[in-house]
Amino acid sequence: MEREPAKPQKKARQYERPRGGPARAIADLMPQIGRTAFRRFGFVQSNVVTRWSEIVGPTHAKVCAPEAIRFPPGEKSDGILQLVVLPAHAPMIQHVTPEIIERVNRFFGYKAVAKVKLRQGEVKPPVAEKRPAAPPSLKPIPMELGESLRDIGDPELRTVLESLARSLGTQREGKE
C-alpha cells in the first residue's frame, strides 16, 4: 500500500478585530468620555463647557468659565449657573450676567438658567481652534473685472473682491 503525500494543513487565521474606521479626534470623543463627570456637576449637555466661547463670546470666555449648573430637585429648568471668574473681571461679569443668562438659555432652547453665582478663581484660557483657510478658487476672473482689482493694496480685501467677481462671472455665464 502506498501512502499519499500529506496535504499541508491550513493554519487557522488569528481573529482580527474589525476596525472602527479612521482615527477620531479626542475632542469628538470627549462628550462620551466626560458625560458622567459633566452630569455630576449638573451639565446636562457637555456642550456648554466645550462651546463656552461660542455661547458667551471670546472676550468673556477668556475671563470666566462654567463650573456647574444646579437645578432645583426634580427640575431641569430655573437652575443656577456657577461661574469661576478672574478676580479683576468679576465686576464686569456681574454687570453682564443678564446677557450671559440669555445666551445660555438660547443655547439650551428653554429657560434652563435663572440665576448666576460667581466664584473668583483661576480660569484656563480657551483653546483657539485653527481652521484651515479655504483654498483659492481656480476659476478665472472676468477680464473686465480683473484690471480694477489689481490696484487694491489690501490682500484680504482683494481676495474677497476676486471671489465676488468669480461668482458674478459664473452667474453671467449661466444666463447667456
Short descriptors:
single chain; alpha+beta; 176 residues; GMP Synthetase, Chain A, domain 3
| Uncertain segments | none
What topology, given as strand order, has the largest sheet? 1-2-3
- Whole-number mean pLDDT: 76
The rounded Rg comes to: 29 Å
Proportion of helical residues: 40-55%
The CATH topology label of the largest domain is GMP Synthetase, Chain A, domain 3
Termini gap: 90 Å
Largest sheet: 3 strands, mixed
The domain tally reads 2
- β content, as a range? 5-15%
Question: Would you report the number of β strands?
Answer: 3
- SSE order, one letter for each helix or strand: HHHHHEEHHEHH
Summing up helix and strand content along with how strands pair, one would put the structural category as: alpha+beta
CATH architecture of the largest domain: 2-Layer Sandwich
Shape: flat
Q: List the total number of helices.
A: 9
By CATH reckoning, the class of the largest domain would read: Alpha Beta
Describe, in short, the structure shown.
Helices cover 41% and strands 12% of the residues.
